Amino acid sequence: MEFPAEPFRIKVVERVKRTTREEREQKIIEAGYNAFALRAEDIFIDLLTDSGTSAMSDNQWAGIMHGDESYAGGRNYFHFVEVVQRIFGYTHVIPTHQGRVAENLLFSTLLEPGMAVPNNIHFDTTRANVQANGGLALDCAGEVAYQPDVEHPFKGNMDLERLERTIRDVGVDKIPLVILTITNNSGGGQPVSLENVRQTRELLNKYGIPLFFDACRFAENCWFIKQREPGQQHRSVLEIAQELFSYGDGCTMSAKKDALVNIGGFLCMNDGELAQRIKNKLILIEGFPTYGGLAGRDLEAIARGLEEVLEEDYLAYRTAQVKGLADDLTEHGIPILRPAGGHAVYLNARAFLPHIPPEEFPGQALVVELYREGGVRAVEIGSLMFGDNGGKPEMELVRLAIPRRVYTSAHMSYVAHVIGRIWERRESLRGLRIAWEPPMLRHFSARLEPLS
Ligand code: F0G
């Protein structure tokens, strides 16, 4: 197995607790069969998300001590802006405390009821923020994005014909922007090619529509471009990122992913008038524009994290660790979405548990079993997450998101082993039904019960 070893050594460790199966049986009942309601200290390997769960480096922790906590004009802000502009290239950089605030500021400023936002595939908070502002969130990824068994280097690509059809059907004046999510989280952490970004830009030029990136995992996306796209091998990931962002008018960013920090985000754009309107709102809900809901030290950690995430030995290790888990599962015949994503492996719950229909939440049944069997926490991306209000998701997935620089290869082997044990007795698993659900984003807080 190809596996670039960790390009770091471990200076600080955090104890994780082992629990017994009996304890876990009890905890998951108390949690209403919803892994979001578990206490983190009752989990052995937490693959719920790669968001805000990275291990920071000694360099980032040192940056924390350089925090300038002045209310306005702190030095970390200027360092942060300088690094963001070097990579992303946009004129205006607005810090926020996480990605969804950047989304909310953007959509609440640009959207009017009846408008629509096309995206390759919206992430759940993006979709919810579009809808909460009266907009229609439309997905325009290609068919291949929904075919878990088909190998394709750029499954995150926008389907340009679908996008153009959408623009014509909805009407140009009703589309204030188009988004490309890199990598495409809801479609398996799959990358978008540079060629596809270029073509999307050309198409949007024809209609005069701005292009924004949902840039959370931009470094992983650009690493895949370097690995997979013809003619890109000789370039640095930074150069690829700079070209990619040059085709856009701005971006939203959750720094909790590829800025390797535990909290933070930002919003960038070239349009000065739009930036001013958003900064006015920022002061109302987040804070002064030189800290945007963060401490000065957080901005320093983001600036340093953004430089580290572009180191190519880091990216080689990072993507190989995720791929290693995917290959291990594939070797045992366990159905996953192929190829491995940049930040996660997605189990194909429909193929894993064909006897459990979507309305009985096969993905959630698997999430519950992962916890019971081995204290592993994952998240369902299927009918529980997207099936409310008449939604019918095309795939039933369970995401095993790998936090950055946190778990070792032995931890990954353990996870594969736990899944292997469930695979052997998969026919014994049963579905679930909802006992209580909130009106939106139900997967976070719904309570479920097992079907006998
Ligand atoms: N966009 C994408 C593609 C995301 O994956 C996320 C968060 C956000 C926006 C929102 O950012 O959490 O900082 O407000 N994804 C996390 C996840 C929560 O688990 O995939 P945020």
Describe this structure in words.
With 452 residues, the chain is an alpha/beta fold. The chain has 2 domains: 21-50 and 311-450, Alpha-Beta Complex (Aspartate Aminotransferase, domain 1); 58-308, 3-Layer(aba) Sandwich (Aspartate Aminotransferase, domain 2), CATH 3.40.640.10. 40% of the residues lie in helices and 13% in strands. The protein has helices spanning 21-30, 58-65, 75-88, 99-110, 124-132, 160-170, 194-207, 218-228, 237-246, 272-285, 296-308, 312-331, 349-352, 362-374, 383-386, 409-424, and strands spanning 45-46, 92-96, 116-119, 136-139, 178-181, 211-214, 250-254, 265-269, 344-348, 376-377, 379-381, 397-401, 432-436, 447-450. It has a 5-stranded mixed β-sheet, with helices on both faces. The longest helix has 20 residues, at 312-331.
